């Protein structure tokens, strides 16, 4: 009997790549997105159903999870993937930007996770995979709000791991580095700090680092990260964290090698 995965943020990028990867492996896929009426590719695939879901809307969360369970009978894996990046020094961020970042990247994951707990508990089976980021294990300047959500997801997932052990359910995180999608365009909200000249040097240094072609060569494709997600879903291991991508493994290794303070100084000094 085919297994079923429920995916948030499946309209593009990693979420879409994961939906296609699992479908090719013979899984049923409940692919969710804010505007399913605009999705053409996934809608043509066998064993894929589309659902309207804005993770900031509790009614959407409860309805899509209920409908997916009704349609497929059993959900085996929930992939919490929906999210976006918010960049900018804290002083330049509006309260709306701050609230939206927390509401989407953190509270959205918590809402979706909670909506499947009863289903998983009754089946004594299931797996949550939360897409965090290397930004949940390390930090860069100018991403304080983004990091706050991703570090929170790592802590949320680790603590939840203990709870889920009591009911036979798994929790895992996948922490990608750079992905060669349009994240910097479609999925990045960049705050305007042009009036705050004191941060110019810091911002220029960070933009130079992210635009470095040598750095970008180490980025992974969305399909490569989707393969790591599939490994996490099927390897039968109890591992919590899967660091995904050459650049992510390098960064995480460097932080562990240097320690927190030296890593921070190295990041600041390039």
Keywords:
Rossmann fold, alpha/beta, globular, 9 helices, two-stranded parallel sheet
Describe the fold and architecture.
This protein is of the alpha/beta class. The chain has one domain: NAD(P)-binding Rossmann-like Domain (Rossmann fold), CATH 3.40.50.720. Helix content is 47%, strand content 15%. It has helices at 13-24, 58-72, 95-123, 144-165, 200-210, 213-216, 222-234, 246-258, 260-268; strands at 4-7, 28-33, 48-52, 77-80, 85-87, 127-131, 170-176, 188-190, 241-244. The strands form two sheets. The protein has a seven-stranded parallel beta sheet with strand order 3-2-1-4-6-7-9, with helices on both faces. A two-stranded parallel sheet has the order 5-8. Helix 1 links the parallel strand 1 (4-7) and strand 2. The longest helix has 29 residues, at 95-123. The radius of gyration is 19 Å and the shape is globular.
